[in-house]
Structure prediction request, 1045 residues.
Amino acid sequence: MSTKARWTFVLILGICSGLLFGTSAFPDSRGVTKDAIQLGMILVKTGPVAALGLPQGWGVQDSFSELNGSGGINGRKINLIWEDDQFKTPNAIAAFNKLLFRDKVFSIVTMGGTPQTIALFDLIDKNKVVNIPNAMADEFFQPHKPYVFTLGATYETQIDLMFDYIMNDLKAQDPKIAVVYSETEFGKKGLEAARNRASQYGVKLASELVLNIGSVDASSQVLVLKKEDVDYVIICNLAPPTITYLKTAEKYDYWPTTFGINWSCDDTVVRACGSAAKNYIGVGFVGGWEDDTPGMKKVRELAKKNDRDPSKMLTSLYTMGVGTGIVYGEGLKRAGENLTAESFKNALETLKDFDTGGILPPVTFTSTSHAPTTSARFYRANPEKGVMVPITDWRTPKVLK
Amino acid sequence: MSEDLLYLTQLIVSGLAVGSLYALAALGFVLIYKATDIMNFAHGEAMMIGGFICYTLIGLGVPFGWAVIIAAALTMGLGVMTERLVLRPMLGEPQFAVVMVTIGLSIFLRSISGIVFGHDNKIFPSPFAQATITYEGLVLSYTHLWAMLVSAFMMILFFLFFKYSRSGLAMRGVANDQDTSMLMGISVKKIFALSWGLSFAIAAVAGIFLANVMVLNIGLSLVALKAFPAVVLGGLESVPGAIIGGLVIGVLETLVGGYLDQTLPGAKDLTAFVVLFLVLMIRPYGLFGKKEIERV
Amino acid sequence: MRSKTFRETYREDMKVFQTFWVKCWLLLFIIALLTLPFWADPYIVYMTNICGIAIIAALGLNILTGLTGQISLGHSAFVALGAYTSAIMAGRLDLPFWLTIPAGGLVAALFGIGLGFPCLRLKGLYLAMATMSFGVVVEYAITHWESLTMGVRGISVPAPVFLGFTLSDPSQLFFLIIVIVGLHISAAKNLARTRVGRAFVAIRDRDVAAEVIGVNLTKYKVMAFAISSFYGGVAGALYAYSTSYLHPENFTLLLSIEYIAMIIVGGLGSILGSVLGAVFLTAMPDLIKGLFEFLGRQIPYFQARYDEEWNIAAFGLLIMLFLIFEPAGLNGIWTRIKTSFKNWPFTY
Prediction:
């Protein structure tokens, strides 16, 4: 063959194969059939942060299987697909694309991690994916995002509450308050909130110290705090570093009142620290595991039914997962027979003081605000029983200036 | 003691305590490097697995002392197996390839441990007294005291081992020149297996100590990243170097945390790597390492 | 059909496209690739983009580690530098992508030169440790220089604009990425067959000997660092546009290890290998999941046995298996298959 003939041959082949690939059209109604709803979820399942993603995902799974057991949503069963993002942004975007365009889900219930969620905002908006992210940041509801709903209380709310508690409940006079934070999104947010609130109350933060996740020891942090004679320590960190800190503080016989944010307001901390946790107070926005409320009873039953050992997971996150599932399910129910992204979104916006029976504070969303509640409550460690015991009711921060 | 001096001394003591943990972790690295010229990136995973096994055994009701011994023995078995299955076929390959194999191994072991032992934060039942030793206002916990004693003991043990025992001499010989050692009747394969086994056993002990001061989960393996600077600082093939490197890193970290954290947030966790980089710039073969002479 | 390729001159041996059919297949492949957004679902398009970015980064690392033999555990730092440079230029200064992407590469290359000089004395594992420390320092700087990088709050990257069109969708970004990937592959391929490429290989094989025969070690080692980090920086810039949001947590040692895995699985020192390795490792999780789903349908035991950890375990296992059984990587396997087909029915 001459070169020209060979090229012609190739060209013809190319055109034929090009015709073979037709453009395929996507169906209009995504993920909702007569008797099923396809839903997705992106939470980390592997690696060092899996301890955070797994319980939350289990909670959502279990509450949906409970819903399915009691007849589903308007006759439709929920089919939940859980994708792992390994806590990496590119993987989260990939998982999102996969769920939406491969598995053709109606919506994505929740996704983990602030960076991942923010990176997904454009896609969420474009594809009308109604979701309740598991992290919390101002960016999630300010400015208003029509398809993002938030539960829980922001770190700002939690820190404000801690200062209120120190100044009003404990009636501290000219207190020395320090912040121990990890260099993560929530750590820095907590630090900024603390600086802000401190200046509102007219006190100065005694010190700001870094304690990163994976630290072997917190000696230098504790020694600095001890030297500065700090009375109140606010820890913005996950449970493991908080445990390391509390154990180290015990070693140096240093007993300030120590506060923890929602990630470390968990029975695990008390069980791990024992007597070291005797002055530990946590702020949480879910019910305590041993609470005698109808909601928490249901959560415990769900855990038992599905073989989730409470001593082997962060129970506060499991509770949060169940709460997310219940709120999401309620929205789907209220959306009625004709389930679309719009009707679902509107249905969620009708929630007003929705009562979960003590799992979450009352939930309210309106058409102009999907902001989380501003209420949370305090838990005090009980080292004898190894649990966090609620010491206040749901409360909101005082408005200052 | 004046208050400032006490503060400084206490920081140094705490630094030494943390450093002894790093030193324990670093010791196993050196052992493998000394005998086989391999830097084992899966060392952190060996520590983690040792911790997990010990935790499981204690959960089954085995007394702590026995649990440590069994965990060390099982991890040693894992080390020997690793050497046989993964490293033996790599004999004679370029060093880069061998190091990369251990990186693959570390990823593999970490995720298998996730499947076998679960992802939850495990709380290690500490056998050490909760009380602390106080001397003139200085504080040291029993966990750290034991870690210091164990690393000191190990250092002496290894010194004697390498100096007087047959296997120790053989290991040094193999490290020096594999071909000649083979000619002298040393079984290089056995020596390799022995050094991997021993290194994993020490890793298990280090892991158990770490599990005592931290929370036991998959993240424990990442502490080994802190041991790298310690080892390289001391020079890859020096046992005393590893111990000193670990202690130096521990003390420096604590001092930076105690004096600089307010001005340079988070500098504590950077210290080890900056020191490592600087040392390499000045002495490219670590503080106690051997300078290699190259010929074409 | 010819049974064997005969090469009579050195020039012929060095040709990029060895035979006519290579050109044809390549053309067909490029056509299929360019029309991808029209027939594939957005997931595949997005994964292709990620592959493309990984290819550029892996090529860069392969030039440094595979060709020149300098082990680097800090490649993620260069990716991060490129990503943040382009994000800051695009976000703060509103500069167009055709400026920010090369700028990302250039800034990374500058840092690469800066790292290359002090690392001249280091070898092997000590070099690996030094580059690892560099990675940690860069991560620290990104986390703490908040006025510039926004630190842990993360920085948003506006979508690139091309002649008035906003390329926000993966299927639109796809064309940009494909063009840049093409450019970088051909540049790398050509680099490997020039004097520079041969000097790199000489350094890898025996640096002292290379110096003796007249290869300027300082010049070429630093050059390898610069080129490698330029590739990393460009990959980072595309990464920034593709994820539209950057966070320091995404550029850790694990990312460097991922790139190393790619070049090992693909084949050290081979351009085609970098491409194959990047594609293979990016697609691997889906392959494993698919395998489990298939097995689940055949054997009930495997149903619901799937755990995402298996993906990561397989990732580690693959690195080990390739190094033990196939040190030449996918490229080696490919070459063997090709030769055995070409020579069939003879073995050689």
